[in-house]
Design brief:
With about 45 residues, this protein is mainly alpha-helical. About 75% of the residues lie in helices and about 0% in strands. It has one helix and no strands. The protein is rod-shaped. It starts with 10 loop residues before the first helix and ends with a helix.
Length: about 45
């Protein structure tokens, strides 16, 4: 059964992927700022 991938060419898929990547990036930055940086500061004391 051939799969038609042309339905994924719509700009909404690019928007959805960008939203997911943006949320992941923000989550990574907040995790770094709220947990990793304080842990490094307190472990250096």
């Amino acid at each position: 059964m051939p799969v038609d991938l042309s339905e994924f060419d719509h700009p909404s898929w690019l928007t959805a992927a960008g939203t997911g990547i943006g949320y992941a990036l923000i989550l990574a930055v907040l995790t770094l700022a709220m947990f990793i940086v304080p842990w490094l500061v307190f472990s250096a004391l």
